[in-house]
């Protein structure tokens, strides 16, 4: 036990009623200062104890010490004044002294051992104190040498008088003889106290022979066991011997590992389906990252670059240009910057403003009439002004634009899905025709209208290149990624001819055509859907928490069809997001595997926002409160060996290490140690699992309840809009990427940022573990690159989902929002349910260990299922509102899990229950066949915030308060259904009336829940009901260490004193928050809060034996949940050293 400041507790002075009187007479005996002065044969060192029994727990009390009373300063002054005035009597209203015992293990020279910490009891106000908190020695020879001495000091802790905070009595005992007493079965050891007040003082050391919990099913580590001796209400009885145990559990990494692997399989199935959709949409839209991807997908590649022209001749019909052209008020250059000016300072105009348009025509068969099919616009170059020998893409003389709005950008067609690479190359793709080629490419050179750039231009001339004539010039494509591809590349000057056949100039073009040998086909989305056995949107994890909402949503969902269409921008972002989810699950799985290998099971509160371990439950511990009987006084420890004969038994004087003549002793010390055995079983054991809230701390998005509401609302809008548009579109939604897409050819501008823009990534292979390549091979730019928005719109918009809150959405956008939200919900839920199912399995295993020899309990679980009661202490305000939203859905989802005890397996297995995706089966390995069927799970959660944020929520009327009430009412209905099944079993208590009225107190407080108060009585009643129904108990708050500690210690104190509600439920309508919490219960709770395992958990998390409350926060807690003042932090530390 750490030497920490302790609160003051009032205790019974009658030590004899607690531990029994010492043997009479007890003579003060001097203990030799030199251990080597023993005259009897020293025994050999004791053998090590069994695992789990390597500590010695004892309790200390003082008899006949009669410490002096403490007088206040005012009383001391008054006493002095009265004695001066005539020896008047001393005031008698003095109080008992406050004292404690400090225990130190020192070496033979009385120097403290560095490896052994000083141990203390609690502070107690008594003249002959009997302490509640046990002293725990680690029986480890590597830390404590055999010649060590245990020193006991009784210390008065108040600053009053000369004895303040000084030892007033001491006692010593050789460490070797302390261990021998314990090993040889001694129950009580009496030591004389050296005290200046009296020679009759005796220190009583009473051993508590308690064995820790054995865990045949639940793997545990870092177990902590602490003991208490709580005073009995009956003074004639010994105190109540209690131990508090806590351990980390292997399920904290084992269950996330099993569960996340299942989630990954399910999410991977969805990823493959959406990647098929994405690949099909890319083929429909010819939307590839580069030429290699296009050829692999079965598309031929066309690349045309119109570089420059020369000797252009203006048409005779062109309007005469004035000597001084009209300049825009927003001139791009000063007049003095012109390259050619006349003598008067004006521009020498040639009246030609050329630009080029590329067109493509493909006939259905070779040698067909080229005009039998319409020409398709590929793209348009920028305009070069006042020039007969233009070099396009330079914008050399844009300041000479006659109408002041120069066209400086290249334009591409939305029909052919053209893109521009290297500023001048028009690139487009077409489905492969088995390397057949027909049709033509035409380049028209025109002059822009001088008065308005949007008016029809003047055609100068054109050149037509027949593709059929080029076919013999194709050669094998050595650079192709597909086999047997062929290519043609050319760069030349071609004559421009007018419509009359006159040559009006020349144009320089570069052209490349690459024909693939791969077939152009689409993957079947429907077949892909049915090939994958696990798909995220059909698994039990995707079921909504509310059955009515889930049923309504599932009735309207349909099987994926090849006719389903989504925009390419959505598909790209969605596949990327799904791939990110899969990779993140992979990272979590690898982290869980590493922690399982290293046995790093504990996840502290400071790590709850780390993404790679967010699926692990925070601060997960299994804890036990156990009651024991005291071992018989002065009786040897039971052993499998026969007891030694009387002449071989050790005397108490020898075991105390009192040095005398061996002949006077008349005996030899028996060094034969009895075998250890669990000879003092617990008379009652109560298990509780504690953890942090099952929420996704590292994902700062909407909570699960908000996402469920969003899913239902969006799907309702989809249904309404689809019904209204069914006749208009004949049942088909025309969105980009669909099978049929008829559009008027439209030219949209391409800015410099779009040149070489890669809009989609390359899917490397079907292994989702590989990184998804989402960068361009040509330009190296990421797919999320955003093109600048033009007032006329862009062909390449931002490749991400469009916000759904800005304006009215189309049907396609609503469907995309639904699909996006669906997988956000699934991923977040997988993180939250991983934590809740870990706590579920931990609780079930802990309860199974307690009841594995109880056929009635096992039969009850097999018939009606296992009920697990969750107690939530998080508030309904601020960030914790989202945590409550996550926790409610994650706990409610546990209804879809069931247990199967299986003696044929060696580790926990998770599998789907049936092909209808209704639930999961968790197979638990057992040593023998227990002949039990599926054990269903009934989760209930009762929530009530108790901190200062809940006080704020109650004052302002937060909507979260209504959520609390909704959760409590829904959980009570679930508990009612389970209770009705319980009454039909054969396990009903002997008092059937009490069994039928079991839920009445809880029903009364749930129905009378007050939104303006902290209704903590709901939590107390619910915990009683769940334990009476033989269910498991889980308590959680935000981090699982502070508010959880207050609640668990309170519940343990109530269990310790067996305070259950027996009040008429009709009288509970005005119930207050306290449910018969007596002074002894609150005292016991505070003892455990200050000296128990909960303060150890706090130290494990934050490195201090303090709870994360300051004085203001403590005051805002209900009285029964307030920690002792010595265990809270100061205000500065609570703010600067927060672990959240």
The tally of helices reads 25
Helix content: 25-40%
The radius of gyration computed from the alpha-carbon positions, rounded to a whole number of angstroms, is: 43 Å
What is the correct CATH architecture of the domain at 288-314 and 349-515? Sandwich
What is the count of β-strands?
32
CATH homologous superfamily caption of the domain at 288-314 and 349-515? C2 domain
Give the CA-CA distance, first to last residue. 28 Å
Q: What characterizes the major β-sheet?
A: 10 strands, mixed
Keywords: Hydrolase, Lipid metabolism
GO molecular function, one term: phosphatidylinositol-3,4-bisphosphate 4-phosphatase activity
Region (Disordered): 318-339, 631-653
GO cellular component, one term: cytoplasm
Description:
- This is Phosphatidylinositol-3,4-bisphosphate 4-phosphatase.
- Residues 633-645 have a biased composition (Pro residues).
- It comes from Aphanomyces astaci.
- One of its GO terms (molecular function) is phosphatidylinositol-3,4-bisphosphate 4-phosphatase activity.
- One of its GO terms (cellular component) is cytoplasm.
- Strand 22 and strand 23 (503-515) form a beta hairpin.
- Helix 4 (251-285) packs antiparallel against helix 9 and helix 13 packs across helix 15 (879-892).
- The longest helix is centred in the last third of the chain and has 41 residues, at 811-851.
- The protein is elongated, with a radius of gyration of 43 Å.
- The strands form five sheets. It has a ten-stranded mixed sheet, with helices on both faces. Strands 1, 3, 4, 5, 7 and 8 form a six-stranded mixed sheet that branches. It has a six-stranded antiparallel sheet with strand order 17-18-13-23-22-21.
- Among the domains are: 55-80 and 94-244, Immunoglobulin-like (Sandwich), CATH 2.60.40; 256-285; 288-314 and 349-515, Immunoglobulin-like (Sandwich).
- The protein has 1140 residues and is an alpha+beta fold.
């Amino acid at each position: 036990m750490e030497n920490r400041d302790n609160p003051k507790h009032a205790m019974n002075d009658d030590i004899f009623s607690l531990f029994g009187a010492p043997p009479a007479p007890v003579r003060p005996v001097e203990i030799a200062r030199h251990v080597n002065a023993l005259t009897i044969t020293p025994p050999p060192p004791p053998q090590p104890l069994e695992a789990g029994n390597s500590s010695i727990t004892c309790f200390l009390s003082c008899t006949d010490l009669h410490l002096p009373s403490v007088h206040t300063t005012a009383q001391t002054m008054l006493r002095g004044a009265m004695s001066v005035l005539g020896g008047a009597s001393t005031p008698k209203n003095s109080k008992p002294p406050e004292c404690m015992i400090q225990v130190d293990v020192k070496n033979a020279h009385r120097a403290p051992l560095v490896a052994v910490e000083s141990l203390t009891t609690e502070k107690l106000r008594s003249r002959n104190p009997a302490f509640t908190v046990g002293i725990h020695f680690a029986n480890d020879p590597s830390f404590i040498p055999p010649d060590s001495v245990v020193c006991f000091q009784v210390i008065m802790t108040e600053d009053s008088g000369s004895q303040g905070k000084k030892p007033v009595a001491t006692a010593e005992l050789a460490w070797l003889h302390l261990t021998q007493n314990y090993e040889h079965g001694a129950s009580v050891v009496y030591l004389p106290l050296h005290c200046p007040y009296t020679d009759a003082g005796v220190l009583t050391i009473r051993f508590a022979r308690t064995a820790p919990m054995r865990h045949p099913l639940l793997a545990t580590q870092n177990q902590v066991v602490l003991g208490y001796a709580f005073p009995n209400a009956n003074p004639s009885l010994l105190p109540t011997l209690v131990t508090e145990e806590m351990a980390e559990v292997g399920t904290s990494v084992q269950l996330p590992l099993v569960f996340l692997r299942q989630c990954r399989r399910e999410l991977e199935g969805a990823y493959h389906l959406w990647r098929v959709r994405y690949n099909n949409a890319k083929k429909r839209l010819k939307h590839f990252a580069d030429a290699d991807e296009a050829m692999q997908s079965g598309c031929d590649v066309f690349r045309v670059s119109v570089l420059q022209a020369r000797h252009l001749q203006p048409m005779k019909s062109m309007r005469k240009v004035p000597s001084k052209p009209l300049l825009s008020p927003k001139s791009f250059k000063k007049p003095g910057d012109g390259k050619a000016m006349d003598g008067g300072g004006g521009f020498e105009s040639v009246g030609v403003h050329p630009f080029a348009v590329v067109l493509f025509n493909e006939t259905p068969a070779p040698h067909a009439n080229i005009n039998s099919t319409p020409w398709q616009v590929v793209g348009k170059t920028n305009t070069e002004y006042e020039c007969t020998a233009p070099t396009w893409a330079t914008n050399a003389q844009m300041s000479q634009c006659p109408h002041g709005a120069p066209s400086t950008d290249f334009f591409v067609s939305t029909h052919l899905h053209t893109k521009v690479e290297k500023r001048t190359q028009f690139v487009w793709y077409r489905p492969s025709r088995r390397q057949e080629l027909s049709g033509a490419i035409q380049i028209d050179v025109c002059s822009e209208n001088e008065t308005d750039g949007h008016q029809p231009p003047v055609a100068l001339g054109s050149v037509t290149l027949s593709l059929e004539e080029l076919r013999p010039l194709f050669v094998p494509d050595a650079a192709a990624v597909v086999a047997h591809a062929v290519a043609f590349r050319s760069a030349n000057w071609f004559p421009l001819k007018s419509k009359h056949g006159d040559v009006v100039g020349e144009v320089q073009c570069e052209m490349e055509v690459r024909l693939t040998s791969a077939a152009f086909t689409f993957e079947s989305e429907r077949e892909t859907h049915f090939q994958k056995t696990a798909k995220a949107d059909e698994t039990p994890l995707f079921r909504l928490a509310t059955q009515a909402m889930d049923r309504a949503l599932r009735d309207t969902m349909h099987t994926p069809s090849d006719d389903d269409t989504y925009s390419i921008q959505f598909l790209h972002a969605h596949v990327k997001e799904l791939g990110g989810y899969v990779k993140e699950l992979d990272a979590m799985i690898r982290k869980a595997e590493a922690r399982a290998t290293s046995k790093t099971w504990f996840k502290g509160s400071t790590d709850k926002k780390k993404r790679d371990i967010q699926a692990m439950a925070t601060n997960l511990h299994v804890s036990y409160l156990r009651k024991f009987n005291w071992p018989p006084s002065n009786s040897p420890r039971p052993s499998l060996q026969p007891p030694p004969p009387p002449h071989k038994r050790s005397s108490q004087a020898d075991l105390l290490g009192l040095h005398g003549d061996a002949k006077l002793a008349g005996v030899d010390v028996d060094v034969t140690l009895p075998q250890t055995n669990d000879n003092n079983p617990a008379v009652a054991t109560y298990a509780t699992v504690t953890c942090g809230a099952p929420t996704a701390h590292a994902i700062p998005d909407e909570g699960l309840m908000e996402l469920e509401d969003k899913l239902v609302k969006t799907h309702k809008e989809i249904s309404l809009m689809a019904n209204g548009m069914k006749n208009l579109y004949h049942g088909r939604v025309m969105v980009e990427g669909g099978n049929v897409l008829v559009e008027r050819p439209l030219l949209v501008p391409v800015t410099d940022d779009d040149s070489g823009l890669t809009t989609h990534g390359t899917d490397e292979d079907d292994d989702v573990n590989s990184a998804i390549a989402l960068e361009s091979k040509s330009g190296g730019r990421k797919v999320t690159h955003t093109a600048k928005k033009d007032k006329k719109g862009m062909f390449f918009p931002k490749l991400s989902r469009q916000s759904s809150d800005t304006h009215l959405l189309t049907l396609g956008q609503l469907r995309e929002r639904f699909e996006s939200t669906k997988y956000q919900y699934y991923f977040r839920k997988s993180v939250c349910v991983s934590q809740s199912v870990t706590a579920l399995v931990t609780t079930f295993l802990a309860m199974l260990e307690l009841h594995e020899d109880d056929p009635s309990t096992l039969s009850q679980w097999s018939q009606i299922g296992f009920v697990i009661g969750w107690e939530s202490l998080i508030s309904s305000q601020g960030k914790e509102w989202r945590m409550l939203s996550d926790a409610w859905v994650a706990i409610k989802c546990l209804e879809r899990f069931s247990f199967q005890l299986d003696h044929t397996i060696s580790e926990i297995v998770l599998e789907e229950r049936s092909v209808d995706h209704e639930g999961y089966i968790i197979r638990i390995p057992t040593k023998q066949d227990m002949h039990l069927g599926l054990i269903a799970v009934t989760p209930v959660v009762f929530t009530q915030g108790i901190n200062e944020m809940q006080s704020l929520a109650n004052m302002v009327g937060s909507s979260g308060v209504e959520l609390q009430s909704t959760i409590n009412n829904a959980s009570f209905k679930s508990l009612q259904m389970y209770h009705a099944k319980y009454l039909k079993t054969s396990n009903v208590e002997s008092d059937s009336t009490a069994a039928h009225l079991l839920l009445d107190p809880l029903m009364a407080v749930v129905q009378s829940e007050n939104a303006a108060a902290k209704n903590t009585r709901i939590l107390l009643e619910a915990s009683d009901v769940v334990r009476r129904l033989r269910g498991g108990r889980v308590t959680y708050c935000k981090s699982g260490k502070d508010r959880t500690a207050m609640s668990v210690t309170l519940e343990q104190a109530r269990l310790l004193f067996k305070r259950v509600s027996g009040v008429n439920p009709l009288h509970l309508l005005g119930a207050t928050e306290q449910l018969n919490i007596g002074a002894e219960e609150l005292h016991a709770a505070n003892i455990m809060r200050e000296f128990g395992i909960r303060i150890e958990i706090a130290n494990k998390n934050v490195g201090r034996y303090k709870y994360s409350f300051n004085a203001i926060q403590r005051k805002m807690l209900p009285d029964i949940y307030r920690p002792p003042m010595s265990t809270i932090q100061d205000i500065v530390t609570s703010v600067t050293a927060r672990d959240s």
